[in-house]
Amino acid sequence: MTAERAQSGSRDLRLDLFRGVANWAIFLDHVPNNAVAWITARNYGFSDAAELFVFVSGYTAALVYTRMARARGFLAAVVGVLGRAWQLYIAYILLFAFYVVTIGYVAQRYGHAHLLDEFNIRLLIRDPVEFLKHGLLLEYKPLNLDVLPLYIALMVAFPLLLWVLIRWPNIALVISAGVYIAAQAGCNLRAYPAGHWYFNPFAWQFLFVIGAWVAVGGATAARALINSKTTLAVAGLFLLFAAFITLATRTGHQNLILDTVRSTFIPNDKTNLAPYRIVHFLAVAIVISRLIPKDAPFLSTSWLRPLRLCGERSLEVFCAGVFLAFVAYFAIDLVSDSLAFQVVVSTAGISIMISVAYFKTWARDFRAAFDRRPVEREASPQPRLARREL
Hints:
The protein is an all-alpha fold and 390 residues long. It has helices spanning 2-8, 13-29, 49-72, 74-109, 114-118, 122-126, 128-136, 147-167, 169-184, 201-221, 223-227, 229-250, 259-265, 275-291, 305-312, 314-334, 339-379, 381-389.
């Protein structure tokens, strides 16, 4: 996020705030049988933290790299995008290695062999060379390691759309919609040893591009629609409808839902990003944008700083959260599954994620201060004379 922050100028604090929310929610949702996860959005609507993460990522990428293209040229922007994709890939490989080794060690050390099947690493242990090869190719993924490969794929493909996005944002959106339609017809990437990607990149790119389109002028073009009272009312009604369907499904009361409605919205197709998930997320975005303007004073308050930093240092915090989700699950499984202990484990996990964000921010600021030192010494003639005398 450092390069992005440097390029984006005056930062919209809502980006950091809501990406921080997404990171916390993804951690809580990745802990199986965690009652604390009931506070996250996935229990009250069709979309969840994954949509928020992808949308904000698309918005931020467009904001950064379109400015870079205008200031330094299109080639510089492409190099920046691919450099970011490489950074994501390295982070994923490191997370992959730590994740697999930790799960394998815990399963062997504590006799919890079921973890090998639950987290999809038993086959890797049986045939490590073949599965590691496919892991490096992003074809084989243990449980809960699907989001970063999706993000990598989106960033690798982004230069193909960036040139169009800069010149004709609406055409870029139409092209993206066409790819999305193809995804609904079954276009997806193959996974190893069988099946397809859990997050179909041909489908999820549409939400990423919608975020990018909003960043380069789509929000301004659609301002009248967004500010319409009718739009707000329709969005609110759809959110209530989605909350009813989702809560009824999650609490085992599907019988309250009409058969025609049930067949449309259940199961909730996350792999191909069902159209109603996009509509639901956009409805949430419209309501939130009306309730929380960009210049809302509370966004810069100190009590929200931990959440903002978890969004600003998104990559590091996300990786920590995925790893900690397994640790939290194992702790609950080994020690206690009581509600009180689930609260303790969840709070501890989020606290560690906050600590990671603060440490990375401190390290960045320390490096920046250290890098300025030689310039300050060269600007002063006395230290130079002192060195000569010595």
